[in-house]
Amino acid sequence: MEKYLLLLDTEIKRQRFGEKPMSLYEPIRYIMSLGGKRLRPVLTMLSYSMYRSDTEKIIQYAVAVEAFHNFTLLHDDIMDNAPLRRGKATVHEKWNVNTAILSGDVMLVKVYNMFLDLGKDKLKEVLTLFNHCAAGVCEGQQWDMDFESKAKVTEAQYIEMIRLKTAVLLGFSLELGALLAEASLADRKILYDAGINLGIGFQLKDDLLDVYADKKKFGKQVGGDIIANKKTFLLINALEKSKGKDKAELQKWLKVEKFDAVKKVKAITALYDTLSIKSLTEKKIEEYFEKGFAGLNNLSVKEAAKPLISFAKDLADRQK
Question: Which of 7, 118, 152, 298 sits in a 20 to 30 Å window from 108, CA-based?
Fold first, then answer.
């Protein structure tokens, strides 16, 4: 894993993404340098390495996946008015909203440039899969924003939203590695489906950590979803399960326009505790991760899949 991360960081520095004007490209280098888990490109490399040993040959395409992910974060942070990303100021806070939008736009162009080196035998198929994935991510983000004004969002609607917004990119990351390694269509489908289940579990874990994480470890604003009234798995189930004075208390905090953020987070977290929302969410997270692990166990390269399964288990256990 350290080898993969070193290869990724070296390639990210080599890319630079552009030079002038500096005000356009420096924000890209900034967000790409913030690190993070590098989850998606690592999944691409782990998937490829199950079938071939020359993983360094696909590093550029793994970085393209990471660049696309960071493009989505850059715009997502604007929409959420998020102040922090990986413990540092978001691009729109450090520069401004207009710069963040434009830097994000050119990031997406650079992603396509990185894929153009693929041979003719793979280019069309990779771009077709990528475009399907990218459209899905945008659809998921729109659903997420639409949910803000909807009076009621069901658990099923929420799961479908995070499948699009988060999980399809994990599915694409795993399938990309297998495609580049010329794995069978059967294994590619197994990896894509496993990525979907792991991605849903990953996002549900992110929702849980947004409320219950150690602030020093999390790298983002703890309680940000509560402050923004985001209809996460936790809030949807709290609205469904609460009754009487608990429901009235929850509705009060959701409707109030002027409030002390610390008090709101504390009050709603206390309601989650009363309603056992944490344990309910943990059970759902485990359900999706187990589906993902079960899929990976059906691969034709079971022994070679062990590093990928180990990495996925680390994701399930993460605390930040």
Answer: 7
